[in-house]
Amino acid sequence: MNLLIMGLPGAGKGTQASKIVDEFGLIHISTGDMFRAAMANQTEMGKLAKSYIDKGDLVPDEVTNGIVKERLSQDDIKEKGFLLDGYPRTIDQAHALDKTLEELSLQLNGVINIDVNPESLIERLSGRIINKKTGETFHKVFNPPAGDYNEDDYYQREDDKPETVKRRLDVNIAQGQPIIDHYRKVGIVHDIKGDQEIPQVFVDIKKVIDSL
Ligand code: AP5
Ligand code: MG
């Protein structure tokens, strides 16, 4: 099974993706996670990505298309299936993905579109905390770590600063609609109400995937 998960910054793509891959054994391919790993390792690509990500802008398509194609070409993809998170994010990326999938004889089975009121996203992103050791994502209010947790064990993403968040939302709102329309034409988009509690969002997503 090969899926995309889409939604604005903070919609809950990463949160739901980790539940989906646990349940269905798919390979999680998050372009944001790949860029953050490259930034942490200070590779050339990481340095380039940082110059865009820190401003809330998109990394150029040719870079992003390249890393996704490379990952999709690996042997485990055909065996396990994939869940792409945060890609495609421009219509040109959607066309590049169509071409890559055709070349690799892979097919998309569904697009999970998490629909959230943009007004709630600032609050979600400003309260997001990530465990330094495990990389697991939480929220100070909506999804706090269990028990008495030590704030020093968690960090906030650089691009979750209010000025950057505003830019990220503007960029993604502008780019998103043509991509959804592109997949609606093929009839594979499944809209999920994202303004519900995390477990309920997953119940709805699981129903969709079970039906595919
Ligand atoms: P990326 O890492 O993909 O960031 P994003 O799309 O902005 O999305 P987020 O990861 O911020 O949000 P999410 O939807 O995963 O939400 P989460 O589950 O964490 O990309 C970062 C940057 O990399 C981009 O800005 C761009 O520069 C670059 N990039 C990446 N892909 C690219 C591409 N294809 N092309 C070009 N550039 C690219 O949840 C957020 C918070 O809300 C958490 O605290 C969570 O606990 C909480 N939460 C989740 N669900 C709920 C709920 N139902 N109710 C209440 N709280 C919730
Ligand atoms: Mg994410």
Automatic annotation (TrEMBL):
Molecular functions per Gene Ontology: AMP kinase activity; ATP binding
Residue span of region NMP: 30-59
Gene3D superfamilies: P-loop containing nucleotide triphosphate hydrolases
Keyword Coiled coil: no
Pfam families: ADK
Subcellular location: Cytoplasm
Name of the featured protein: Adenylate kinase
